[in-house]
Specification:
By secondary structure, the chain is of the alpha/beta class. It is built from eight helices and 13 strands. It is globular, with a radius of gyration of 19 Å. It catalyses: D-xylose + NADP(+) = D-xylono-1,5-lactone + NADPH + H(+); (1R,2R)-1,2-dihydrobenzene-1,2-diol + NADP(+) = catechol + NADPH + H(+).
Length: 299
C-alpha cells in the first residue's frame, strides 16, 4: 500500500495523491520522513538528489529503496552505504531486474552448471530517448551509462563475477552535443576467462536482449534484458507472464515492479538491513565501474 507521497511542490504531490488514491501528500521530504505510518521510502528523485534525499531518510531511521543509480559516483554511494550500516537501516538499490522470474531462472541455470562455466555474456539495451530532457543534461546526471548501463553491469557481475569486480574494463563511446554519453560499448574481463560485451544507447533502438554462453550451451533473454519475461534455453521458449496492469503503463513491463517491492517487504519482515539478492557491496562495485566507464569515454 502506498501510504504517502512527497514532492518539492505540494501541488504536484497532491495531484499525484488524488490520481492514485494515496492518503497523504507532503510538500517536503522532511515531512514524509516524520510520517509514523511509512514503513519504507522509495526514492525516485533526479540523480543528483539521491545522496541528500537518501541521507535524510536513513538518518531518520527510514528504510530506503533507492532508484538506480544509487548515487552520482562511488564516493556518494559509499556515503549512503556507510550511513545505512551505521544506523542499522535497510537500503537497497532498485535494480528491479533481479526479481523478475525470467532473470532468476537464467541465474539458476548459470549457478547450477547447466551451461558449464559461464564464459561469455552479450547484451544490448537501447532506446531513442530524445524526448527525455533530463538525460541530455549533465547537471541532472544525464547520459546513457547512469540511465541504462547499470543494468548490464549488474548482470555481468552476477553471472560472470559472482558479485566480484572484473579484472579489466574498457569503454568506448560517443557523446551527445550537450556533453553527456549517448552511446557506449563496454567490455569486461573476469577471473576464469569470463568476458562480457555490453552496448547501451539513448539515441538508437536496440533489440534489448542478452545471451549467456558456456561450454555446454547457451541461454538467452530475447528482449527487455532489464525486465525480461521470456527465456530461450535448450531449444525451448519459457514464458513468465506479468500480472495485468491496473493503470496505464509509462514503461514496458512496469507491473514487474511488484516483484522488487515484494522482495523489500520480505527483507523488512525478516529484520534485514540489506538485500541478499542485491547486496550493498555490489552496488558499490557497480558505482566504481560506472565511474571508470564514464571516465574512459571522456566524462
Amino acid at each position: 500500500q502506498v501510504a504517502a507521497v512527497a514532492a518539492r511542490d505540494l501541488g504536484r504531490a497532491q495531484a499525484f495523491a488524488r490520481r492514485f488514491g494515496v492518503p497523504r501528500a507532503y510538500g517536503s521530504y522532511e515531512e514524509l520522513a516524520e510520517d509514523p505510518d511509512v514503513d519504507v521510502v522509495y526514492v525516485g528523485v533526479v540523480n543528483p538528489a539521491h545522496l541528500p534525499t537518501g541521507l535524510l531518510f536513513l538518518r531518520r531511521g527510514r528504510p530506503v529503496l533507492m532508484e538506480k543509480p544509487m548515487a552520482l559516483g562511488a564516493c556518494e554511494v559509499a556515503q549512503l552505504v556507510a550511513t545505512a550500516r551505521e544506523r542499522g537501516v535497510f537500503l537497497m538499490e532498485g535494480f528491479w531486474t533481479r526479481f523478475f522470474p525470467a532473470w532468476q531462472r537464467l541465474r539458476s541455470l548459470a549457478s547450477e552448471g547447466a551451461l558449464g562455466t559461464p564464459l561469455v555474456l552479450r547484451g544490448e539495451l537501447g532506446f531513442n530517448l530524445g524526448g527525455v530532457p533530463r538525460l541530455r543534461e549533465p547537471g541532472l546526471g544525464g547520459g546513457v551509462l547512469l540511465d541504462l548501463g547499470g543494468y548490464g553491469l549488474q548482470m555481468a557481475l552476477a553471472l560472470l563475477g559472482g558479485g566480484e569486480p572484473p579484472t579489466a574494463l574498457r569503454a568506448h563511446g560517443v557523446l551527445h552535443p550537450t556533453g553527456v554519453d549517448e552511446s557506449v560499448v563496454v567490455t569486461l574481463e573476469f577471473p576464469g576467462r569470463g568476458l562480457a560485451a555490453l552496448t547501451f544507447s539513448m539515441a538508437a533502438d536496440l533489440p534489448g536482449g542478452a545471451a549467456l554462453g558456456g561450454p555446454r550451451g547457451w541461454a538467452e533473454l530475447p528482449s527487455h534484458m532489464n525486465c525480461p519475461t521470456e527465456l530461450l534455453w535448450g531449444g525451448h521458449r519459457e514464458r513468465f507472464p506479468l500480472p495485468p496492469p491496473a493503470e496505464p503503463l509509462n514503461f514496458p513491463h512496469s507491473t514487474g515492479l511488484r516483484y522488487e517491492a515484494q522482495h523489500v517487504r520480505e527483507c523488512l519482515l525478516q529484520g534485514l538491513t540489506e538485500s541478499p539478492e542485491m547486496p550493498l557491496a555490489e552496488s558499490e562495485v557497480i558505482a566504481r565501474l560506472l565511474d571508470e566507464a564514464r571516465a574512459q569515454v571522456g566524462l
